[in-house]
Backbone:
């Protein structure tokens, strides 16, 4: 039986701005087992990255985790940890590869030194040993001539190479959970394929949380998929089941908006409208202004996340009527 690694329960992260409270993550619950890969999917602005930053306790001001828990096996509730405790956990137990490497890599430090710094922080190694370990980490993620590339600065590298550096840094201390935020964004298709092949190899030793809006990435890498919209979790299921039998109108709309070879001349579906204003989100189901299944109950009541078949959860009042 799979062993639970991380359990997110009713997590709420809000941003207190001058114009109002932005409820970026508003009651999200999901879990990740040891050795499992979970794909967290949704449109831009759905709350995926804020969820990951909440797990890492890296929410910038004026954001704050207002309630909920994130139970990590052997550590306890991450939400209640002090900042000094989280510094020991980040990198060692949980690591994150960020969406824009150029933003998070220090432009005035050599990449090898930046990876070695992480290793020195969490492992009992000398500076020399840490630099050798950094080179091994770079080799692990497929960087050619790692001894030479370790002496380069971030601006001397391509986008794909910087993404590999972020992965090498995240993996340098062999964390139990790796969070990869949009690992293939802004990369050409050849580099994307190389990164995806690398991620497939990495999942053999780590639990992964892949954050993306690309359902192709999810289909290739994930064991399970969680769909987010406007701060809410809409659906959570095993990847094959979700692609075959979605039980949420938002999931169905996402699947129908991407091309498939077996559809012939069938037109792709465009999801009308956009993500709502999170300061004053819609009442009831947050997707109801854009939903083709909407009725009165959808406008009045927030649907609860319910298990519709073993391992398949959805938050929809009319899930039984959805046909693919």
Residues:
């Amino acid at each position: 039986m799979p062993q639970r690694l991380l359990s997110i329960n009713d997590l709420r992260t809000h941003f207190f701005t001058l114009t109002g409270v932005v409820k970026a993550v508003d009651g999200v619950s999901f879990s990740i087992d040891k050795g499992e890969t979970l794909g967290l999917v949704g449109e831009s602005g759905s709350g995926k990255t804020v969820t990951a930053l909440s797990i890492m306790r890296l929410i910038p001001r004026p954001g704050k985790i207002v309630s909920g828990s994130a139970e990590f096996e052997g550590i306890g509730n991450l939400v209640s940890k002090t900042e000094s405790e989280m510094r020991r956990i980040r990198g060692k137990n949980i690591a994150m590869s960020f969406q824009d490497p150029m933003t998070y890599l220090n432009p005035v430090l050599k990449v090898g030194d930046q990876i070695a710094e992480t290793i020195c922080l969490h492992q009992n190694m000398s500076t020399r040993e840490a630099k050798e370990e950094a080179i091994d980490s770079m080799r692990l993620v497929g960087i050619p001539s790692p001894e030479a590339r370790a002496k380069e600065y971030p601006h001397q590298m391509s986008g794909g190479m910087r993404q590999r550096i972020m992965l090498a840094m995240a993996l340098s201390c062999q964390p139990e959970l790796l969070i990869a935020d949009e690992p293939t964004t802004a990369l050409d298709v050849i580099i994307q394929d190389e990164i995806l092949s690398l991620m497939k190899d990495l999942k053999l030793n780590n639990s992964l949380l892949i954050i993306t809006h690309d359902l192709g990435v999810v289909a290739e890498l994930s064991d399970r998929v969680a769909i987010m919209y406007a701060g809410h979790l809409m659906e959570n299921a095993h990847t094959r089941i979700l692609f075959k039998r979605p039980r949420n109108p938002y999931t169905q709309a996402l699947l129908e908006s991407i091309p498939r070879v077996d559809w012939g001349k069938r037109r792709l579906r465009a999801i009308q409208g956009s993500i709502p204003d999170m300061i004053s989100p819609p009442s009831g189901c947050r997707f109801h202004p854009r939903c083709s299944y909407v009725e009165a109950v959808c406008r009045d009541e927030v649907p609860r996340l319910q298990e519709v078949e073993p391992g398949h959860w959805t938050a929809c009042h009319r899930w039984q009527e959805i046909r693919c």
Summary: Residues 127-140 form the longest helix (14 residues). The mean pLDDT is 90.
